[in-house]
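Dear U.,

Please find below the material for section 3 of the report. The protein was modelled together with molybdenum atom; I have listed the sequence and SMILES used, followed by the predicted complex structure.
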Amino acid sequence: MPRRLVELPLLRRLKPGLYVHDEEALNAEPGLELLDEPITPIDAFFIRNNGALPEIDPAREWTLTIDGEVERPRVWTLPELRATFETVTLTAVIECAGNGRSQFSPVTDGLPWRLGAVGCARWTGVRLKDVLEHSGVKPSAVYTGHYAPDRQISDPAKPALSRGLPIAKALAPETLIAFGMNGEPLAPLHGAPLRIVAPGFPGSAWQKWLDRISLRPHEHDGEKMCGTNYRLPIVPVRPGEAIADSQFAVITDMPVKSLISHPTHGFISAVGSTLTVAGYAWSGSIPVESVRVSCDGGESWREAELLPGEGPFAWRRFTADFAIEKAGPLMVLAQARDRDGNVQPLDAAPWNPRGYCNNQVQRVSGAAR
Ligand SMILES: Nc1nc2c(c(=O)[nH]1)N[C@H]1C(S)=C(S)[C@@H](COP(=O)(O)O)O[C@H]1N2
Ligand SMILES: [Mo]
């Protein structure tokens, strides 16, 4: 019998530290203290679902169909995929495009994510490129379309999500069809048995419960690919202003960003002690170059020490020490910069109707006593 993957009480046991935004679709994020590790543990990892969890019949063998603009369409079983293609493991950040949405003003539509809809994991799978090339990619293929069995809650006839990748990203060596996460078989909540891993691209491009990839002769137009869904205005917009769909473009590489995982809001530092500010920095395709940290609300800054990441798609640990000399309020900020000189905005990121890509500098308030 098909069954719903995970019920809420089970989620609370599996991921006890997560704040649940939405019980029906199961959307949940960790507190930032749970993200203070180079590899995010699975029980601290955020969950994002656009629809109901799919009903998966364990008795039916899972297959992955490759069709569309290919010479030789093909249906794969999991053992066939594993036996035919090289298995690779890479470390990559996945961040929901809506992470930080609650900090936009005025508020926008969408789940009011705080800052926890991000994590860094080790992903194991086969290269999407290898699987597509085995079918013979036609020159007419410019985009992938990804399909999965999960359905919309308000309209179960419709898929919850069907996103895709520009063909260059689909054929890039880092893009995977994954079946493992952090050395374990991929968990049902994270898309088992198969999901896309598209390092640097928004989480929405990382299709879970993948059962079909169709190569498209134009940009994919599946569920949540069009209109304002996971698309940003290509011109500045003011809140409330009407703008045509043609003025939006699909989000591809995510902007440079950092997260302060220590200390957390409301911290107290003793006068005479050292405050160590620590966290992680990452970006889409342009490497992170530096992080600077302030503990006086941005009056003065110090370059953080930045450790190498576990490969080019992982986040990088930063730390900065401050001598706490006098009592009073403290306001900790971290600002990452990428190699092209892009920095996190100190105040608001550009406002957009659906509240995507908010990489504004995080502020953590505390006090010295
Ligand atoms: N089939 C399917 N895949 C999906 C989604 C979905 O709703 N359905 N949500 C996407 C979004 S918006 C995000 S941010 C990531 C979240 O991955 P996670 O739940 O493993 O953290 O999955 C993506 N893949
Ligand atoms: Mo997302």
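For the text of the report, you could mention the following: The first strand starts at residue 3 and ends at 4.

Regards,
Y.
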